[in-house]
Amino acid sequence: MAGLPLFEKTDLGQLRDGMAKDEMVAIYDSFSEQYDEECANRDYAGPRMCAEALAKWLGDRKTSSILDVAAGTGLCAVELRKLGFTSIDALDPSQRSLDYARSKNRYDKYICDFIGTNRLDIDDDSYDAVTVCGGFIMAAMEPDCLPEIIRLVRPGGYVCITTRDMYLTTVKAFSGGRLEAAMTELQSKGFWEQVSRELVPGYHPGIDAVIFVYRVLR
């Protein structure tokens, strides 16, 4: 799959399935200062959808701590703060995207790293919730990162994942139902339970989002 639909005339249009992760990061680095404006121009509603979906489940907005994975320039944090959440950290492999987010004071802590099978330098049970908006795309996050996401969330906390519905079948790493199969396997092993799966229109104009919310059990 070549490029991100609706961003084909920007640097993000260079993204493609199977490319090396350092190439993907370089593209996001190069586009960091234009990203917010381009998303606004394209009516990108993913961050708002993700924040609103989490807010339905996560209780105390003043004290709950959130890690925004694949945080980018911080658009999800903007929406979370609008809803009253105050403690939000960022994790993203693009340092320039995080630098832009820092310039806007969007997070409390900025962690530059990939998430995968590697153990991050973050303690177990550090957060009440993890959000992932737009991280499950080509050349980025893969199903094998889910156990690490779960490790970071306290039992009873939540994981909210928002992505384009079409990516579940068109991105190589997820094709054949592999992303949802990995989610289901972790549920069968007692690590988490699905509390919501919604198909929502308007992620971009004419593009649906699928929003997963899981409660961590382990």
UniProtKB/TrEMBL annotation:
Pfam families (alphabetical): Methyltransf_25
Superkingdom field: Eukaryota
Classification via Gene3D superfamilies: Vaccinia Virus protein VP39
Database matches in InterPro entries: Methyltransf_25, SAM-dependent_MTases_sf
Residues covered by the Methyltransferase domain: 66-157
Protein name in UniProt: WBSCR27 protein
Protein's gene: WBSCR27
